[in-house]
């Protein structure tokens, strides 16, 4: 009997593995290698250059937490920019707000979107929403060339800071995001993990840059079983609103959005960080 496993190194001496039922697709694009798998434990999942992006079983925590924390902070958000996010999960969560008028998604690799539409309809099926415009180009270039302060919210749903995703962790990129956000704009970005050294170093580097650009710069946590250590972070940077003091939890609850991970108690609790994480961020 075939004993097929997908494995990912979480550190030089730690691996995470999923038993694979079927390796359904593989393609090398000009940007990265894309693979789709089926497993019993995690359902369908896909990798870019050998690293897990999303699995059917746990994608909900990432996509709900990147979206609902800033939305609950300012329920008047109307224009949103998503950078990366080719699987469509972040856009799916945004489309649940009828108040959002425009969602621009900038994904460098069109093949991620097209293959997600084929293999991952559970995340990609809202990419055809009438409010969504897809741009297939480098997010770094897109924000550089964007002239106006047009966005209320920018969500950076990126890969790790290696290869094509590296620029999305640069000071220059964060400065451009600040410039194109409205006076009360919010930026949420994929912020790596505090646990294993190589991820923690990137977490710290990203936070150090953002806190010098935005007046409010915080970090919040969530549980993502298939990302290194399972303990993962988003960065919350804002020109005006504080995610705890200014959030509208009662109004958010009234919207009746059904979620599997996020709730308005988590809105406040997710900003409470363990001591070793606080220390690392403050160092
Ligand atoms: N949730 C995932 C995680 O944290 O691992 C991220 C998934 S999402 C598929 C990441 C996407 O960012 C990829 O599809 C990749 O092509 C895209 N991406 C990477 N660098 C980019 C860039 N410079 N501009 C736009 N999109 C980029």
TrEMBL record:
Keywords: Polyamine biosynthesis, Spermidine biosynthesis, Transferase. Belongs to the spermidine/spermine synthase family. One of its GO terms (molecular function) is spermidine synthase activity. Pfam families: Spermine_synt_N, Spermine_synth. It comes from Fusobacterium mortiferum. Catalyzes the irreversible transfer of a propylamine group from the amino donor S-adenosylmethioninamine (decarboxy-AdoMet) to putrescine (1,4-diaminobutane) to yield spermidine. Homodimer or homotetramer. It is an enzyme of class 2 (transferase). The active site is at 157 (proton acceptor). Pathway: Amine and polyamine biosynthesis; spermidine biosynthesis; spermidine from putrescine: step 1/1. Gene3D superfamilies: Spermidine synthase, tetramerisation domain, Vaccinia Virus protein VP39. This is Polyamine aminopropyltransferase. Spermidine binds at residues 63, 87, 157-160. Its EC number is 2.5.1.16. Signal peptide: none annotated. It comes from the Bacteria. It catalyses: S-adenosyl 3-(methylsulfanyl)propylamine + putrescine = S-methyl-5'-thioadenosine + spermidine + H(+). S-methyl-5'-thioadenosine binds at residues 32, 107, 138-139. The keyword Heme does not apply. Residues 3-239 form the PABS domain.
């Amino acid at each position: 009997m075939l004993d097929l496993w997908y494995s990912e190194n979480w550190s030089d001496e730690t691996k995470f593995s999923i038993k694979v039922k079927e390796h359904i697709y593989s393609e090398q694009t000009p940007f990265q290698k894309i693979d789709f798998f089926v497993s019993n434990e995690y359902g369908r999942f896909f990798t870019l250059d050998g690293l897990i992006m999303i699995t059917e079983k746990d994608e909900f925590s990432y996509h709900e937490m990147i979206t609902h924390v800033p939305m609950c902070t300012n329920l008047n958000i109307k224009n949103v920019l998503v950078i990366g996010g080719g699987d469509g999960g972040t856009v799916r969560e945004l489309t649940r707000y009828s108040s959002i008028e425009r969602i621009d998604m900038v994904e460098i690799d069109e093949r991620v979107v097209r293959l997600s539409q084929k293999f991952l309809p559970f995340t990609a099926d809202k990419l055809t929403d009438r409010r969504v415009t897809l741009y297939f180009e480098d997010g770094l270039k897109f924000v550089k060339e964007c002239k106006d302060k047009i966005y209320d919210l920018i969500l950076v749903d990126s890969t790790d800071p290696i290869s094509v995703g590296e620029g999305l962790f640069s000071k220059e990129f964060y400065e451009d995001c600040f410039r194109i956000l409205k006076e009360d704009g919010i930026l949420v970005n994929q912020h790596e993990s505090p646990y294993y050294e190589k991820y923690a170093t990137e977490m710290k580097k990203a936070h150090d840059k953002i806190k010098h650009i935005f007046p409010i710069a915080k970090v919040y946590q969530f549980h993502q079983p298939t990302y290194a250590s399972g303990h993962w972070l988003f960065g919350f940077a804002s020109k005006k609103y504080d995610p705890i003091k200014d959030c509208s939890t009662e109004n958010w609850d009234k919207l009746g959005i059904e979620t599997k991970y996020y709730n308005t108690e988590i809105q406040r609790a997710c900003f409470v960080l363990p001591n070793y994480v606080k220390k690392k961020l403050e160092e």
